[in-house]
Amino acid sequence: MPSRPATSDGAQAIRRAVNLLRVLSMARETGYGLTDLARLTGLSHPTVHRMLRALMDEGLVEQKASTQRYMLGDQIHLLALARSRQSPLIEAAEAHLDRLSEDVGDTLFLTQRTGAETICIARRLGAYPVQVVPLRVGDRRPLGVSSAGLALLAALPPEEARDILAQNARRLSEYRLTVEASMALVRDARRLGYALRDRGIVPGTRAVSIVLRDMAGQPSAALTVAGVTRRLSHRRIPDIVEALRQTSSRIERAMP
Description:
Elements: H1 8-27, H2 34-41, H3 45-57, E1 61-63, E2 70-72, H4 74-80, H5 88-104, E3 107-114, E4 117-124, E5 140-142, H6 147-154, H7 158-167, H8 169-172, H9 179-192, E6 195-197, E7 205-213, E8 219-228, H10 237-254
Antiparallel strand pairs: 1-2, 3-4, 3-8, 4-5, 6-7, 7-8
Helix pairs in contact: 2-3, 5-10, 6-9, 7-9
């Protein structure tokens, strides 16, 4: 039978379900409770519960019997297996990430923008004995929290950056940030030409990020070096920034 165009209500339901899955992806194996999910999505408890039951019926969401918390289901992984190749960005970046990791010795992250979020798509651990690992591959953060998100926002027009932060206001509060506080960090990043989180998400750490642009010149990803504060000193930051810039240029040139 020919498919019927989605009604506005149907499209809204799909968007809500996708957003719910995105939020659940942040919880990993720990999962979120119903109240957490209602707060993070801005939806009512009955609406979230109804959506969860439908997604559980399809195997896209599971509920842990021991905690009654919700998490992504096995069908998410099985659906992803249908994609046989890596993203062009990862393929273009891999060799350059390995080289940069050897050069700097600290933890290296490649994060990609997806809507109002970033998602970590690659990570390299350096040779320095103390490594900072606030992110795993697949972890998401709202734009405006991490140095990667700040770098991406700084590369956008100010009005667009502010709109995204306003959209993320509820989620920023989970990190004890406000729209104005994040906007001040974005302005600093725009002035410097790179984003610096002097106090990283993990206490006692520091992170610096540079934007990568796609073939159309749009900011689409960010390259980050993170380390403990004594290791990533302000005296060393300029050398890290230069290494990030050189690597980002190589990755951009390698993109198909």
